[in-house]
Give the backbone structure.
Amino acid sequence: MNLDELISEYAEIEGRLADPAVHADQTLARRLGKRYAELRPVVETYRELAVTTGDLATARELAGEDAAFAAEATELAGRREFLEARLHRLLVPRDPSDDKDVILEIKAGEGGDESALFAGDLLRMYLRYAERTGWKTEIINSHPSDLGGYKDVTVAVKAKPGQGEGVWTRLKYEGGVHRVQRVPVTESQGRIHTSAAGVLVTPEAEDVDVQIDANDLRIDVYRSSGPGGQSVNTTDSAVRITHVPTGVVASCQNEKSQLQNKEQAMRILRSRLLAMAQEEADAAASAERKSQVRTVDRSERVRTYNYPENRISDHRVGFKAYNLDQVLDGDLHNVTQALVDAEMERRLAEAQRTS
């Protein structure tokens, strides 16, 4: 879609959002609002560029008569160059899931109890990052460990209406193996151990994104285990759903009722099926589009958290910082920004090759 078409689409959506009848359909209004927020930076940058270009032409015409206009022309030329570059970046094809919310899963890996504790640390990091960013979080499913960590935990992260940037834009880079180096609480000799936890991030799918035939599902119920109230271990409230054609499985035991657990498991299942479909589409379109900063392959180590040096290292883009304590407290912006920038540079280079 070219720039003129985007501007026309923006004007059309603006008109539709002014119609009260549109807001009677909340799903439609939300979809239009997201697209409107996505297009706004493009249109605003284009309009400012047009004004700046006009002002620059005027300033250059008058520069010979007044030195002040010559100085203004120099300033406007710099501004126009900046706006042209910004517009070019905004027009680079986006990840189609960038406006989506996410389902984030953390699983303990190598390291036993220490890995489960680290999984808990990662969960707190993401919850605090979400709080700083203004996102809403909801723990969908969890299996706590004996020492206070998590064997695995699944959390939904949602942007608030009108935020513009979707959660996937930032958290999609978190998928992979996260390695920690520290002295475990269970270590009596003070030796540094290395353990790991796996993170999987998928865009949360809506009903319109993934069509699931009920006949393709196998639903099993079983008794919950672990903390959860009086219903735990007394009723078959936990639910496991298997999508038979693909073998994808999702389960939930956190809610008290079987119906609630089924609904949450379906959320996870839809997101996993959407992620699978997108990966297949990416592979079919171009192998190059499987960027290293988008991987959700658990076998790939993406980041190391070194406690003795207070250092965090992201191995995909060479990012390194010595404020690990702040990052674990939710100050994750600089880490994710390095990955966002790397992805943008890749997309720019790809756009230039195909233009």
